[in-house]
Amino acid sequence: MAAYFDTSVLVPLFFHEAGTPAARLEMQQTNSPWVSHWTLAEFSSTVAFKLRCAQVDAATASTVRRLFAELVASRLTVVDVLREDFANAAVLCEATPAPGLRTTDALHLAVAQRLGLALVSFDQALTQAARQQGLACRGSD
Hints:
There is one protein chain. The protein is an alpha/beta fold. The protein is built from 7 helices and 5 strands, in the order βααβααβααβαβ. The radius of gyration is 15 Å and the shape is globular. The relative contact order is 0.18.
């Protein structure tokens, strides 16, 4: 089955976090994981943040970047974010009741909607919004 993965599921694949076992299971159960170029940028930002805040050292960050690039090249389908995705994300931000959506999450949701893919996320606000929009989702219950 194909599914769109947001960054909240990808990060625990490479860092030991509470969500690591669940992230591994989601990846194993999905034969066609999709991400957007936005996801790649957001993942890089997260690694850089962890490095700046001394949560990881330079060697770990370098290894994670390499392993993520290998995952992208070998397993993930990467799609463009389109102008219409940004417009839809704006509508989703306006239409989603409290606690609402952050722009970053709304963009993930808009891409998944456009592609007609289930959304895999560990972000509760995002999965709640996805369900309100009638999009199948997994990861955060």
